[in-house]
């Protein structure tokens, strides 16, 4: 069935990595088509280089290279009338777009006073600059990264402190946030503004098992998506306390089909390991990266995923997370999806069949090959949790 809603994402080189990836894969998991466009780039083949913005002990955030994010539609053919919402990630790319007449007019068509009908516009971190350039900020209650406050005020907007950092401010058709820490609220508000009916998520809790060098996308994208449909999402690590962070790793395919590794964002541990009780959760998610190499050596982590399965909970693993499932004996006789890294492991662990690529649900076991399969992976999880998103 064709998607009933379409969202336009305005992209460019050095847009914030999470602020593009989380809404892209989350909305796709909910059945929404997302077209990614960028001035000067065309599909197929063209991509934007994203940037990771994270505080690493300096006075200002550090910018690190992220992923190559594919352009999926032609910017020149983009028209507001064809879409139900606009998402503009943060990042330095909006500085150039703010003086691009075509980009500014496109934003104005969504949010400006002359729009025939108001469609939601999501602006995060620094992309409020583009809304100001379009003359659509006056009188609007808006939040952003702290340095953008003067831009909001000079453009006639009404500044709202981003407190807590997870705040998403909805004022008319404009949805604004400090950036990626607010993804749960951003997705919730965007779905509401698009007329979505979300059922089944409230009261359900999902636990993410992580450690240093967990895959950047595979942890944060489902974490934000599940929060967006009302789940309480928590993260635990057997070697870290609540409030500490796991460093994430970025794995991005090169033309040689290998994957280099780069540092990504930090992924916060939200609960102490000693406080984890499987009975409090409906699902456990094991992202990939190199983190499962540690988790598979920790008896308490192996026992925990085995306990989730034994109690009939949803167990979801992506990419190298399968190593922990194998250690817990959960792949024996099951169908699973795998990438190159874990195909041999899945076979040795007794998997009845191994699909290369994509995502598979076998009973309450969900597996996926890698982060490009996140939309399908998330869709299987929310289906097994009885969560529905309808328009």
Q: From the helix content, strand content and strand pairing, which structural class follows?
A: alpha/beta
Helix tally equals 12
What is the radius of gyration computed over CA atoms, rounded to a whole number of angstroms?
Answer: 21 Å
Strands of the largest sheet, in order across it? 2-1-5-6-10-9
Number of strands: 23
Average of the residue pLDDT scores: 94
Q: Can you say what the CATH homologous superfamily of the largest domain is?
A: Class I glutamine amidotransferase (GATase) domain
Largest sheet: 6 strands, mixed
- Which blocks of ≥5 consecutive residues have pLDDT under 50? none
CATH architecture of the largest domain: 3-Layer(aba) Sandwich
Bulk shape:
globular
Gap between N and C termini, in Å?
Answer: 13 Å
Which topology of the largest domain does CATH recognise?
Rossmann fold
Strand percentage lies at: 25-35%
- Helix residue percentage: 25-40%
| Integer tally of domains | 2
Query: Which CATH first-tier class of the largest domain would you pick?
Result: Alpha Beta
